[in-house]
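Q: What structure does this chain adopt?
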Amino acid sequence: MKITHIDKWQVVVPIQPDALNSPEFDPLDEDLAFFWKTPKHIIRIHTDDSGIIGIGESHRGCPDAEMEHAIGVITGMQIDQIDLHALPIPMGSAYGAMEMALFDIVGKSLGVTVARLLGAQVRDRVAVDYWTARRTPEDLARKAKEGKALGYHGIKIKCALGDPNIERLQAVVDAVGPDFKVTVDPNCRFHLPCHTISFADALGDLRQCVAVIEDPVPKDNLDWYVMLRQQLQVPIALHLGSGRAVFDAVRRGAVDMLNISPYSMVEFVRQCYIAEQAGVPVWHGSGVDLGILDMSYIHACAAAPAATLPSDIVGNFVRDDDLLVDPIVIRDGYADVPTAPGLGIELDEAAVAKYEV
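A:
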């Protein structure tokens, strides 16, 4: 089967108006308020075999030159000459888009899901939490109620030192109870271990609603994470993207959990194997993406035994459109793994045209 040509679009799909910060926090966090304006690439690979195609999506900010280079290398190749575990292009955002499109093609050709191609499909659904950014306590309580009503069992939030963080958690517990878990993600903006310890000490009984504290302090100092893990009474996690970083974190005993999000599905599964050997559970991170990339995360999690924690597969329900004909099915806090071969999704060409830039 030969790759005949590859279509490419750049798109910008807005975030839904009520998905991110409370208005009070937009001036304090412009990167979080406006990250969605960075374009993404959508690709479609065509073959000479009965119209079999594959679709892919880049992460935000993929340079157009990087995507054009990948298209130039892959176009004209025979599918059976491509090592799906080591594409002949540099690792990066374009790599990830090409990888998922090629897996989509091979899965359709063989009649199997991408999850099975990644090794073995170990689950038919993948845990997902609700998601929002920086909120006032009252506003977060409203979003927690919204998430619980939709069937989710927890919510991931953004925060920073100086925010009303304890008040936020109390508002969630008052609104939906302590069994609705909160992933607290400061994006390293607790800055120092002492601030993280102060936050954890102030939790009191609110500890029971905290699923994990993710990236409280800068990630380049594992000594801090080792110390925090020894002192905190709540789990701690790092958001990582390389096999070496995962290995170092689990070898040092620096984490209770891991958020892993490399550019590649294959790399995700590999890194999960490292975590699994250390007994560290994993969830899949994201960049609040669109439907194709979110579906690639679902397949990768379905193929990784260690990926048991609720993943950040959230862009499909917080963006204005997922660019898919049929939406990802999320029920009772779990995303279904499609039974159709390949990625199991279809590109909505009208939506792509609407959001193309």
